[in-house]
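hiii, so i know i said id send this last week but things got crazy w the move. better late than never?? heres the sequnce for the chain we talked about at the cafe, plus the structure i predicted for it. fair warning i was half asleep when i ran it
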Amino acid sequence: MDAVLQPFLSFFKSKPGKFIIAGGLLIVSSEIVYELYLWARKPAKPKQKSCEVFFINRRKLAQPLPSPQEFTYEHINRIISYINRAEKSICLAMYIFTMREISEAVIRAKKERSVVVRVVTCESMVGNEGSYLRDLIAEDIKVQYKYKSEYLMHHKFCLIDTDWYCANCLIEYHTEQYGEPTKNMQHTMFDKAVMSDRAGLLQRFGSSCARCNPSNRPKQAVPRRKKSSDPLPKHGVLIAGSSNWTFPGLTTHWDTVTISSLPELIDPFAAEFQRMWYELNDPLKQHATREPLYKTRRGMDGAHS
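okay and structure toks below
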């Protein structure tokens, strides 16, 4: 074996051999240095902002310039991108909901990723012919409102992948923020329940949740097909503002949308959604969306946007 290797060893000890080895090492080291240079110059991934405000009739100029479709749908596509990343839950409180693209994204979240979807709406909009509520109901998504309510459910917000309060945490938060309800301060059904029907709240919302017992944090029953390359913040996001989810409301009106992962903003909206879920608890049926209740009983125009 030594006799076979001797010519090669002799060659690499010679001047030409040493030159080849040195050249090879130079090439390899140069390649390593170049790769390190490229890595150092690689722009850092922008840190996700914890709160952003968008004005509906303004656009961000991007390079390359967006197509007319992308330009028009900037805010709509932004909302859809958040819904597409939902893993656990979507809690939507919306006065008017006439955007087909957003409706389809919500339905995909439920059907393809087993996301829990809850919707609260307003009786005055139940008969809106452009509403996509009936499409959500057709997919067994629970939509609630208050029948013959004297007041509008006029909110426009959505919570994605936020925690759900149990009754104990909901009562504790409510009491911390607004004080213990008294006999003369029972403004709503929820106030009355905190005062005299805590058993009913426990039955509705349970006695333990991920907020007070992290071991209760739900695990996905359906395996993820592909891990999102841009996951939502750990405790979810809030999308809120003055815009109804209509085409003009998200493209041309003087409206705003705020997107935030700040707990200081998420927590009040999460508690408020559950308060509405308790009080505005008439389930909306498929046939009801075809009845112009707001016209026959209230004389209201359902064509708002």
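btw The radius of gyration is 29 Å. thought thatd interest u
miss u guys!!
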